[in-house]
Design brief:
With about 160 residues, the chain is mainly alpha-helical. About 50% of the residues lie in helices and about 5% in strands. The protein has a two-stranded antiparallel ribbon. Helix 2 packs across helix 3 and helix 3 crosses helix 5.
């Protein structure tokens, strides 16, 4: 017979819980760094999408060029979902800007949260007023961060 209590672990908080008041260093300059990271990621995704568009266009003798316009949003969705849910927890642009994305409980973001975060981010461009939420939020989270249950932090906190 085992002394292991199967219900004891359910009452324990996860080991990666973020501190309730986040330290200043974890959020210092996050907004500015996020804007730079978005620009870098847009350049990276744009380059990959254009290269893929050209390659597929030439391989199909131009026929694919008519069906490939949604290539950029699809690629951006997958790019953000795979990189943010990966072991580095950030897109390459975010890594260059010393940022990472975590769930609000401190754990790594799964693919679905990362991908939904990207979709909501691109939708928020249609309504830029919602980005003001970041100025009112104490932890500098945007509305799309709150809806996707993630937080963007400095890596070197």
């Amino acid at each position: 017979m085992s002394n292991f209590n199967t219900n004891a672990w359910m009452n324990q908080p996860p080991a990666s819980v973020l501190p309730d008041p986040l330290p200043y260093a974890a959020l210092a300059g996050v907004r500015t760094r996020r804007m730079a990271a978005v620009c870098l990621d847009l350049l990276i995704v744009g380059f990959i999408a254009f290269s893929l568009w050209l390659l597929l266009g030439f391989l199909t003798l131009g026929l694919a060029w008519f069906i490939l316009p949604p290539l950029f949003p699809i690629l951006a969705f997958v790019y953000n979902g795979v990189t943010v849910s990966g072991w580095r927890m950030a897109t390459p642009g975010m890594r260059m800007m010393d940022l990472e994305v975590r769930l609000t409980d401190g754990g790594p973001a799964p693919f679905i949260n990362a991908a939904v975060h990207a979709v909501l981010f691109y939708i928020s461009w249609m309504f830029p007023v919602v980005l003001i939420v970041s100025l009112l939020s104490g932890d500098k989270r945007c509305l799309h961060d709150m809806l996707a249950n993630v937080i963007v932090l400095r890596r070197s906190r």
